[in-house]
Amino acid sequence: RACTCLPHAHSHVCRVRSPRRRAMSITFQLVAGTYTHVLYGYNCTLGAKDPQQLSAGTGVRYVYESHAGCITALAAAKHMLVSGSSDELIKVYDLHKQCEVGVLMEHQATITCLAFHGSSHLLSASEDGLICVWDTKEWECLKHLRGHKGAVHSVSIHPSGKLALSVGKDHTLRTWNLVKGRQLFVINKTAEPMIVRWAADGNSFVVLSANMIEQMSTESGKTTKEIAVQNKILCGHYVSSNLFAVGTEQGTVELYNLSTGSLAHVIRGHTNRIKDIAVFSPIPGQTVLVSASSDCTIKVWQIPAELDHAAAAAAPSEQDSDASLATVGTYTRLTCLTLANLPASASASAPDPGITRGSSEEGAAPKKDKAAAARPQNKGKADDSKHATADKKTVKTAIGASKAGAASPAAAATVEEKAKQGKDGKPQKQQQQQ
Asked: Dihedrals φ, ψ of 44, to 5°?
């Protein structure tokens, strides 16, 4: 508040002026992929004079026929956007220049998942069972992660950037050490796991199958909560540490309380299956959920703030189509969704990544020149190099990794000592004298 003092004969009279409240305005992009090879981009502006009630407006930014097949995966970080397709390609776009800048050709089947860690690294997965780790500065493939016997359905990166989870058609949940490029653990699942999501704090994660939400502990790897879902699950995302949202085949978005295991909220705004959802917080205390459906629409919703602290209720609260902040009609069936150009205040800050460029492990990808990513790969070549040279930087980076499968300082020191020895186990100086 501003204070203006007016002098009088014997005293000062203070007139307090309240500043004008500025309306909040945040603009970001909704990017959606379709069955018809087309990429849609929309500007979405969130505004509010009252922080408790948001409003939204949308407008078309671009329509681009990007692939020769169905677009199956999208991811965005800062000014970068990547799309994967059934044509086995990953395309890279610059959202500032609004143009395509490159093509990644490391996979030999439909791309199933794309996930950024910050803006420095990208993980890609496909139906060929391969997971690739990319350096986004040079778009060089740093590592090949092999282990799944069949399609990889979903990948999630730990907030530290040192671990990743993947689930696949072989009914397995696999943990990967991204520092060394090797597999750590394998857990067999009875039901086929379709989606995996790590919590923001990294202490737990959720595995989704057709009709089950399974919360698991990162430290023990054991199941801490199982929630049965009546409708078939097609997609899912954390809303908060205590709320998890799933999109269903019946066209509803259902929010479950992970502490109580109860259904807390239902959004009924679509007439066909939910293909993908995205969540972010434009301002503290407010959460926005965006849903994409096979009914050719994208809808923007404000999630009630009280849901995160509400106790188990006899009946869940509901929202219908009239409660959506905005609706976008695309006139074509949607397959996937991502949010781009989010303001810094709305984007979670990524910690220092633990992914390293070199690796002495079998999962390391062979080195290539800068243009190699844009060339077709030789299907007959060996992807794994068992005779790669040890990289001391990778050994040192392993120190301080997360509890789940992390290398201890003592173990890392032992590996580094072995790297300094010759083939017969003697120090290099003794070999030279002999």
From this structure: -125, 125
| Percentage of the residues of the chain whose pLDDT score is greater than 90 | 59
Q: What is the DSSP letter of 421?
A: B
Instruction: Name the residue among 167, 217, 213, 221 with its Cα closest to residue 193.
Output: 167
Residues 394, 396: Cα–Cα separation, whole Å: 5
Is the pLDDT at 392 greater than 60? The verdict is no
The identity of residue 20, as a single letter, is R
Specify the range with the lowest mean pLDDT, choosing from 27-41, 126-140, 265-279, 353-367.
353-367
Sign (positive/negative) of CA torsion 331, 275, 306, 262?
positive
Q: Could you tell me the pTM of the whole model?
A: 0.76
User: What does the DSSP assignment read for 100-145?
Assistant: EEEEE---SS-EEEEEEETTTEEEEEETTSEEEEEETTTTEEEEEE
Rounded-to-integer distance, Cα 94 and Cα 66, Å: 13
Using an 8 Å Cβ cutoff, are 131 and 141 in contact?
Answer: no
What confidence tens digit (pLDDT) does each residue in 231-258 have? 999 999 999 999 999 999 999 999 999 9
Contact 155, 195 (CB under 8 A): no
Q: Specify whether the backbone of 88 is left (phi greater than 0), alpha (psi in -120 to 50) or beta.
A: left
Q: How far apart are CA 128 and CA 233, in angstroms?
A: 24
